[in-house]
TrEMBL record:
GO terms for cellular component: plasma membrane. Keywords: Cell membrane, Membrane, Transferase, Transmembrane, Transmembrane helix. Its main location: membrane. It holds the Pfam family GT87. It is found in: Cell membrane. It comes from Nocardia panacis. This is DUF2029 domain-containing protein. Belongs to the glycosyltransferase 87 family. It is a multi-pass membrane protein. GO terms for molecular function: hexosyltransferase activity.
Amino acid sequence: MYRAPVFPRQLEPRTARTTAEALNYILWPLAIMTVLQRVFIKAVNGFITDDFKPVYAASLAFLNGQPVYTDNFDSVDPHYLYPPSGTLMIAPLAILDPEKSRWCFIVLNAIAIIAVWYLLLRLFDHTVRSVLAPALLLAMFLSETVVNTLVFTNINGCILLAEVAFLMLLLKRRDLWAGVAIGLIIAVKPNMAPLLLIALLRRQWQVFITAIGVPVALTAAAWPLIKDPMSFVRHTMPYLLESRDYFNSAIVGNAAYYGLPPWLTWGMRLVLGVLVLISLWLLYRYYREDELFFVCTTSGVLLTATFLLTSLGQAYYSMMLFPFLMTVVLRNSVLRNWPAWLAVFGFMSYDKWLLDRWQSAGRALDYLRITFGWALLLIVVFCVLGDRYLNARREGRLASGIDPLWLRETPAAAEEPPAPALTPVHNGVATSAGEPISVES
């Protein structure tokens, strides 16, 4: 019998035998090619918006002993806004020439995002062999937040990695190291400080030692090295505390752009703020023992509220919500409903909704979708948790938690309806339990 040579047989691609294998074979090439296109084509080509240019200029000025905080805030160009502690951390960027430094920074952020992808799989008990692995990688690199982080070339990928490290270390009760992770974040972006509320609610007090100590130490080291440290206080900080009406998806930003009255702007912020407080209370009261769900969901609520309700929220900040969005794989997730993913589409989609024929309507659709997406996400969390609470109170089972009763069943029992009990087959006919069987002679 003729047998094909071994080498040609090895060239034959494997054929999937299960649906899971087929999905893996479909999604992995799509995910890998998307990553390569985003990193080495789209990001290297760049865009008119360039977040890296002011960062590189500030780093170069710092290394050469020149003033750092000299931006003209009357323009709409990207500005350098990092505090002295952040300036000290990013200063090594200027060791290389601008082009090579930018390429290295793109690759660094891409590596950080891929590391986050792997850590999230591990955190939620999945492996790179699961179908979720290529699906998650593809979804991340299709999102607006990852694409624009790479194309604009900012530090958000590294910030996300530090955030995930903080959450994982917090769950493992490695408090001092968790504080180091969040401390490094605060040293660059103080608007991430609300995450410390999770450590406070979990009474992990040692986190605050390093969370406060790291940025203080970096600031103390940077202060005498910067030519104009007080310019950050007098010139940059007032701008950070203002709400601008461009490139700002926070409520106050769009309200200023569309000219809404202050009472309406404050009314929306206060109403959503109350919903956030109620959601946080329900999470703390009934879910703090479910550590993974509590930490990741609370982080999402806190950060979404920060982006939406404070003075500045930019679309690509949504990257910090990846740990929260991953909770959809948990059975008690608050994201297992279609309104939640309508909200996610609003702030994660890379689509543009501008209309050439109806420009005013198109601008409204495109500018407001992120704001509406963040707001809808907070409303969904409140409604899901509130509905669970009201149902549990009505059924008198608040003492045992607010999860629906079906969530307490085993996954197999919850997904498969019980089969009717049957007696052994008699004369070729199966009969229900308790039904008499006629005996024929």
